[in-house]
Amino acid sequence: MAAMLKGLPRLLPARCLSSTAGGAAATGTGPATTPLRPRPNTLTDEIIRVDHAGELGADRIYAGQMAILGNGPMGKTIGHMWEQEKEHRRQFEQLIQQHRVRPTIMTPLWNVAGFMLGAGTALMGEKAAMACTVAVETVIVEHYNDQLRQIMDSPNPDKELLQTITKFRDEEQEHHDTGIDCGAEQAPFYQALTEVIKFGCKTAIAISKKI
Ligand SMILES: [Fe+2]
Ligand SMILES: [Fe+2]
């Protein structure tokens, strides 16, 4: 039976596999550097899908800001945050592969929307770009804190995921603080601008969790 299972395609649902199937899948078709793991539970699945989408969006937001402000006085600061977002995205892309999680079908939209949000606010000025950063990072820090509580409350907390999200949450908090330090609150229509962006981010999160 185990020998028969070895030949099964790697996307076969976990419920179809015996307890030895995780090991069989680990010897499957994934790249050598990212060993496949047993099929994740629904919580892990949802967390990885939505965080992958969020970090992709964040990468594109900072790319949009850099396209407009990259050569200005804020270029270095924004560039540093962008580098961290690229690393967050890279790590969630790895987790998506390792856990065989389906990415959100909204990926192409978040790609474009993220860039437009970053570039659009940057066109309004450096302070508006920072207001965008503050709004986005406020939502992401809250979102990561919610996830950390969910993971810790789960029967088998995934320690690696806890560590990853804790580190990223701290870096997102730094991005938020950088935005405040760089004058976000002096942006025109700061309150309205940040509320609209926060609402957009929360909607994107709710959608990406499910589809
Ligand atoms: Fe991030
Ligand atoms: Fe961030």
Automatic annotation (TrEMBL):
GO CC aspect terms: extrinsic component of mitochondrial inner membrane; nucleus
Membrane topology: Peripheral membrane protein
GO biological process, one term: regulation of reactive oxygen species metabolic process
Keyword annotations from UniProtKB, A to Z: Iron, Membrane, Metal-binding, Mitochondrion, Mitochondrion inner membrane, Monooxygenase, Oxidoreductase, Ubiquinone biosynthesis
Gene from which this protein is expressed: Coq7
Family membership: Belongs to the COQ7 family.
Cofactor: Fe cation
Cofactor note: Binds 2 iron ions per subunit.
The protein's name in its UniProt record: 5-demethoxyubiquinone hydroxylase, mitochondrial
Sequence segments annotated as region (Disordered): 20-40
Reaction catalyzed: a 5-methoxy-2-methyl-3-(all-trans-polyprenyl)benzene-1,4-diol + AH2 + O2 = a 3-demethylubiquinol + A + H2O
The keyword Membrane is annotated on this UniProt entry: yes
InterPro entries named in the record: Ferritin-like, Ferritin-like_SF, Ubq_synth_Coq7
Keyword Ligase in record: no
Biological role: Catalyzes the hydroxylation of 2-polyprenyl-3-methyl-6-methoxy-1,4-benzoquinol (DMQH2) during ubiquinone biosynthesis. Has also a structural role in the COQ enzyme complex, stabilizing other COQ polypeptides. Involved in lifespan determination in a ubiquinone-independent manner.
An example molecular function term from Gene Ontology annotations: 3-demethoxyubiquinol 3-hydroxylase activity
PANTHER family listed in its UniProt record: 5-DEMETHOXYUBIQUINONE HYDROXYLASE, MITOCHONDRIAL, COENZYME Q10 BIOSYNTHESIS PROTEIN 7
EC number: 1.14.99.60
Organism whose genome encodes this protein: Drosophila kikkawai
Main location: mitochondrion
Binding site for Fe cation 2: E85, E137, E172, H175
